[in-house]
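cron nightly-structures :: item 1 of 1
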Amino acid sequence: MRSPARLIADRVSETWHVALTAITAQPRALVVSLVAIAAGAALWLHAAGPGAFAGADFFRAYLAGARAVAAGQNPYHRLVTQTIDTRAGASGLHASGYVYPPLLALALAPLVLAGLDDRAVWLTWTALTAAALVVMGRELNRALRGDDGWAGALVFAAVALVPAVAIYDLWLGQADLLMAALVVIACGRLARGAGWAWAPLSVAIAIKPTMALVLLAWLWLGHWRVALAGALAALALVALPFAVIGLAALRDYVTFATQWNGLGADAEFINQSPEGWLLRAFTANAYTQPVLTAPLLVTPLRLAIEAGAVIVWLRVAPWGRRLGQQTLMATCLAALPLIVLLSPLAEDIHLCIVIPSLVGLGWLAWERGWRRWWASWALWLAFAFAALPRMQELIYPDRWFGPLPGQSDPHVGAWIVLARSGALLFLAVVTLVAGCAVARRAIAESPTAIESQPDARIAPFSAIASP
């Protein structure tokens, strides 16, 4: 009987041999692969090349959490000892330090204990993100094109790096691009009936709990066994690390979460959730001049926007309807913008979760020949907008070409500032509406309801959990 290490080595060798044989046997695939790799490398240099550095704002927080865990300390103590901000629109505790569940800090701690410097830890982290993007590209290629080749996988992965928020996320060393990749990998495995579909999603949830929305989408689509397995695994991945680092950390984390301004009082420009935009529009705050001081409008309008967004997605597929591989992936991709729209805090880099929707559903619209349809053009134009260099800075009134014409006008200036401060929010709305339209049309025009693809819902739990 071969050892686990030998089995892993044999599997890696076999995968590499199959991939190399498939690419070299097709000159066109080889050329496409090299172009995709070159494009990805050119974009990657912007994030990790000369002049880039480890320890940008967000990754410093990850490192701080990892160092605290490695030293046997409480990574959340700093959060609860800071001074509470009392300014309108910013009241509460700020996310100044490591704010995530402990799994991520616990995972990075061995690299710190191994003596790696900040840059080495950062490059290891970003290399993991790059590998996840390639696997994500392969799942998109499999589900949407029915192709298992690496050329298409590399193209999907390279295109996912084009939007400005993707490169910005890499430069910051943030986790959002990795979370998007894990979610799509999980959805891809679900769509093709592969085992352990819940595993990558549970890891994503244990790092960023808002990813749990995908489990609810799976429940609606009838995949309750996989959703249940994912929920239990995610709960374990959140709870067990707290058992390792101590209950004092859990107490401080709960204290911070209940007083965090990001969960209900954050009107900062970086907050691209509906709630953040409504706070800027209708409440006195430290960042914008409200167009109307009416704080009582914020909650009902937020609930209306969220309910409308959910209804738009629910109309894509009826409850429990069996879908094929391509349409199930399309339906999952259409749900991803909901993670932004239903969250009380959605920062600029959180829009990375929308990138797979733009890439996958945009390609599906092109492949189906819907070139004169509004939804297709909405997705393509949204992707083009997302690809503008540094477009994430449009939300700030003094960046990205500076103040816009009329921005200082006493009559319309506040409206212009408000409009640009929600640019990424509007991108998520367009992606949701147009993406749901594409997914719904794909389902309607499918040759059969099932498309002759496996369905993980009808498999026993043992089959779902088996590798």
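cron nightly-structures :: done
Residues 317 and 440 are 7 Å apart (CA to CA).
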